[in-house]
Amino acid sequence: MRRTAQVIFLAIILSPISGIILAKDKFELVEERIRELAPSAKAIAVSETPMTGILQVQIEGDIVYATDDGRYLFQGRVIDMDTKEDLTEMAKAGVRRELLAGIDVSKQIGFVPEKTTFDLTVFTDIDCGYCRKLHSQMAEYNQQGIAIHYMAFPRAGIASASYEKFVSGRSDDDQQAAMTAAKEGSEPETRQCDNPIAEQYQLGIALGVTGTPAIMTSDGQLIPGYVPPATLRERLEGMSAASTGK
Question: Nearest to residue 214, comparing CAs of 124, 120, 91, 118?
Fold first, then answer.
């Protein structure tokens, strides 16, 4: 159930600690407690929030919150009800922006207009119905000045039938044509080659992709699901205006 007038948290009670360890920096304390719960996490970053006594914790690509005494961990969205800003989404956008900056563009399959106004990264599944609908309107997206750079996200996972279709398509000399044929329902000839499919799939998970198509702007904002070409252009213009304060 959506609730617009309050912040919703799922609280996880950590094991009790004996008193406040004054000698420890609160960031270090919280990081230590988080590592007890997630010992395999490669990256944990703790930072301040506008809320007294609450710290933001980035665990790889996810954002959670903790009390600064290391006692409680919260998961959910934080909304500033004065400014109507989604502070959690803003933090996640920053994480996505950093991860997207490291993408090797040569490994994407791009459909780019002569004049590009908006550059989007789209995580796609070949067998996803709405992904196919989006692709069928590629000329219209391009006419709206929208460039689409595909990243593979076979929802059934690595070694699935969709995954193998991606690999076969990447092995084709004309990857754009192979992608279009696969989106139209053609079964590609099975081929194997060096490919970035598993890497892109894992990146999608790190970015918080849970469904397809997952549209991401260059500044890390996520637009989940299919959006018609003209509507997407309007939405992107609105997002751009909001970010620049115009």
Answer: 124
pTM (global) more than 0.85? no
Sequence-ordered list of residues with C-beta below 8 angstroms from that of 178, at least 6 positions apart, any chain: 168, 169, 170, 172, 188
Strands 118-124 and 109-111: what pairing?
unpaired
Torsion sign (Cα): 194, 40, 88, 227 = positive
- Asked if residue 98 lies in contact with residue 138, where contact means CB atoms within 8 angstroms, the answer is no
155-206 pLDDT, tens digit each: 999 989 999 999 988 888 899 999 999 999 988 788 888 889 999 999 999 8
The answer to whether 26 and 68 are in contact (CB under 8 A) is yes
Contacts of 167 (CB under 8 A, 6+ apart): 191, 192, 193, 195, 197
